């Protein structure tokens, strides 16, 4: 029997009723057909299993994707929370510094008044020097705390220029040598004969050396030894601050530049720290393109800090200017606007002692009324006044139709660049950060004269 297949060719079918087809051939063909069917069934089963596995994989991927989306949302929420917490921390630190600086103003002014008193005894003069040193120490601690917050939020900007390293070190020593002498410590300075210079920010590099030398003094006992040596190595300037003080434990050494890391304290050591000074130093040195490392043989065996900065050439020295003529010391009419009664009284007493005519106002509105009612040569105005703050007082004064323009000196516990910029925009001519340097305040008043 023959059948026509789909291609039109004639093939012989295996009909079991056809006596012409051998039974063995029929059986073999049937087995092959069954085998092919079994293979097809196996293939289909495998396809089903594969499809099920694929569906499971898709389900797992979908679940993983959902988890990933949730994790991304959670991570963004955590980042937002961290940024908000960081902002709150920086705002708190700035507010804390402001509030802690306020009491330092009357303390500093009181010590200055005692020091200038005509009948001050040598013992009283010694007491006033101790007060001034401790005020300066507290102000430095507040500066370190604020700088740590500013660096972490990227709010510090350097004003780079070629600097003589020896002059920078001299400025730092003016601050720390009195503390070293007070504790009968021996300080050794080794500078090369040639002038070394680096490109840096004068204030910040002075701060670096002040912190390093001050830290060495803090962790060295009375009568101990501190040394600063400076040398040129290739394209770098290398400065080493070494001491024979308490040293650094091996487990602390790797973290000595981390924020809030402190070495062991002795109960007898009166000058403490916040554990932020070395962190500030490391970040400032890094911003100058340098490095700093610390090493110590162990507790009680002293420590050494090695600072490396890129060197540069100093520009040609400008011709010396003739000294300015001395000021006549003319008496100025000064208005002090300050809501802290102690600070206000001490500022008035201090300026009275210098021969100036001083009036006071203890809130912004009263200060503005006084400025609009009569002429003053100088106004010393606190920025953080209740109600009408100092910025508004000055803005209204400058916008008034009156012809008088007193020299405006702003006082504030906030010292960041944006704070100074806001004060300048409001009309302040000068900006002093509390605790106010009496000499700086006198110089500004005398300049008006």
TrEMBL record:
Signal peptide: none annotated. Its EC number is 2.7.13.3. Gene3D superfamilies: 1.10.287.130, 3.40.50.2300, Histidine kinase-like ATPase, C-terminal domain (3.30.565.10). It is an enzyme of class 2 (transferase). InterPro entries: CheY-like_superfamily (IPR011006), HATPase_C_sf (IPR036890), HATPase_dom (IPR003594), His_kinase_dom (IPR005467), HisK_dim/P_dom (IPR003661), HisK_dim/P_sf (IPR036097), Sig_transdc_His_kin-like_C (IPR004358), Sig_transdc_resp-reg_receiver (IPR001789). The keyword Coiled coil applies. It comes from the Bacteria. It holds the Pfam family HATPase_c. The keyword Ligase does not apply. Residues 95-313 form the Histidine kinase domain. Keywords: ATP-binding, Coiled coil, Nucleotide-binding, Phosphoprotein. One of its GO terms (molecular function) is ATP binding. Residues 1-25 are annotated as: Disordered. PANTHER family: HYBRID SIGNAL TRANSDUCTION HISTIDINE KINASE C, TWO-COMPONENT HISTIDINE KINASE. This is histidine kinase. It comes from Massilia suwonensis.
